[in-house]
Design a protein that fits this description.
Layout: E1 48-55, H1 62-82, E2 90-97, H2 102-114, E3 119-122, H3 126-137, E4 143-145, E5 159-160, H4 172-184, E6 188-194, H5 198-213, E7 217-224, H6 232-241, E8 245-249, H7 252-264, E9 270-273, H8 283-286, E10 293-297, H9 307-320, H10 326-344, H11 351-359, E11 363-366, E12 369-374, E13 377-379, E14 385-389, E15 395-397
């Protein structure tokens, strides 16, 4: 039986068939012709939509993987409660831990396909996405990328990515550096990258180019490992260079540990990073050393951009007794995108019709604001929210941000 395998399985129940305006999602060219604002389209009565999710629930990436899965759970509850897919129709979400093993992700994806899933959420990390993407493209079951930022992943009708790519030209990183460099007057920088993560290396080049475009000299690019936990040597090296700013193009935990090591060695200047540094759990690793580390993010629970974000925050907080972070927002947005594809698939959904239904989605009103889709890839035109860590583990909005 296709059952949810996390501790929260069984919580996803149909509470009613009345459609509320909890979420406003737009699907252009939909075969059903309806969005979340109107009455449910003519889906099959009592249809069960099976969805698999090979998730990152343990290991170094769990700080992101767990909230991604929780965000998806919140979306499923909302989809089912509002009758979005038709009266009596529900999503049945099966979440299983891949333990950061791409081979296990592939095995689970194939099992979900065998068990009758019409769609899959996947690809929390770029190495997982790189291994799984070719398998998905050869299969019939479409997948929604939850957070991986590897280049070229979106590939309709197989792969769709509602993840905002901050490294795209003129994207979040470029806008962030333009704003911060102008406001804080950097002259020199050091860029730190996870040398064993291709996406982080590629992003590091984007950061460096943005700095140089703003007249900031990049003194050195320092490579560290994604599994490293002792940053004494690179922090000492950086402190000796005395840059005006340090850019951490690294995963969340290495970013927090690097920040702590830099502060321990007396570096008291600005550290910039991606929204990977936004996870509240990172304070356990970085502590007060995170103070002054700034990042740009499309979503911040305390700084919602629209009613969709506010209502998501309320629902998530009520369920998990904690505010959602950027990763929870990614899981929520991914599941709602898949729901749009399932709605467009009509009364008798198949993996193929869901893939075609996803291909018809051109816009989505999300917790980030209005997303538009080109070739299955989400694009957000706004610069996001600019935040910095405080010494007591909270976030403060930067006045020189967007």
């Amino acid at each position: 039986m296709f059952r949810q395998s996390t501790a929260r399985r069984g919580r996803l129940a149909v509470i009613g068939a009345a459609l509320s305006a909890v979420m406003i999602l737009t699907s252009c060219g939909s075969s059903g012709g309806d969005t979340a604002e109107g009455a449910p389209s003519a889906q099959g009565q009592g249809q069960v939509y099976k969805v698999g999710f090979p998730a990152l629930l343990s290991g170094a990436a769990a700080f992101a993987g767990k909230p991604i899965a929780q965000g998806a759970e919140v979306a499923v509850e909302e989809i089912n409660e509002t009758g979005f897919l038709g009266q009596g129709s529900t999503v049945e979400l099966k979440i299983e831990d891949i333990k950061s093993d791409p081979a296990k992700a592939i095995a689970l994806y194939r099992q979900y396909a065998t068990d009758g899933a019409v769609g899959v959420l996947c690809c929390g990390l770029s190495n997982e996405a790189g291994a799984l993407a070719p398998v998905i493209r050869q299969s019939k079951v479409p997948a929604i990328v939850t957070s991986a930022i590897l280049d070229g992943l979106a590939s309709p009708p197989s792969l769709f990515r509602p993840v905002v790519l901050p490294s795209s030209p003129g994207g979040v990183y470029d806008k962030f550096v333009d704003s911060m460099a102008k406001a804080e007057g950097y002259k020199t920088a050091v860029v730190v990258v996870n040398g064993d993560v291709d996406a982080m290396v590629a992003d590091g080049k984007v950061w460096a180019a943005a700095m140089e475009r703003n007249g900031v000299k990049v003194l050195q690019t320092v490579a560290v490992g994604s599994a490293d936990r002792d940053f004494t040597a690179p922090a000492t090296q950086i402190e000796a260079l005395a840059p005006d700013v340090v850019v951490a193009s690294t995963l969340g935990t290495p970013t927090a540990l690097l920040a702590r090591s830099l502060r321990d060695r007396g570096y008291d200047k600005r550290i910039l990073s991606s929204y990977g540094a936004s996870g509240p759990a990172l304070f356990d690793a970085g502590g007060s050393g995170l103070a002054g580390l700034a990042f740009a993010t499309p979503f911040a629970a305390d700084h919602p951009v629209n009613d969709t974000a506010r209502k998501f925050t309320e629902r998530y907080t009520a369920k998990f007794n904690a505010a959602p972070d950027m990763f929870a927002a990614q899981g929520y947005t991914a599941m709602w995108l898949l729901a749009l594809g399932m709605k467009n698939a009509g009364a008798s959904p198949t993996p193929e019709s869901v893939g075609q239904g996803l291909s018809q989605v051109t816009t989505q009103e999300s917790v980030y604001g209005n997303l538009r889709y080109e070739g299955g890839q989400a694009i957000l035109d706004s610069p996001g929210v600019y935040l910095e860590w405080t010494k007591d583990g909270k976030f403060s909005e930067l006045s020189n941000g967007s």
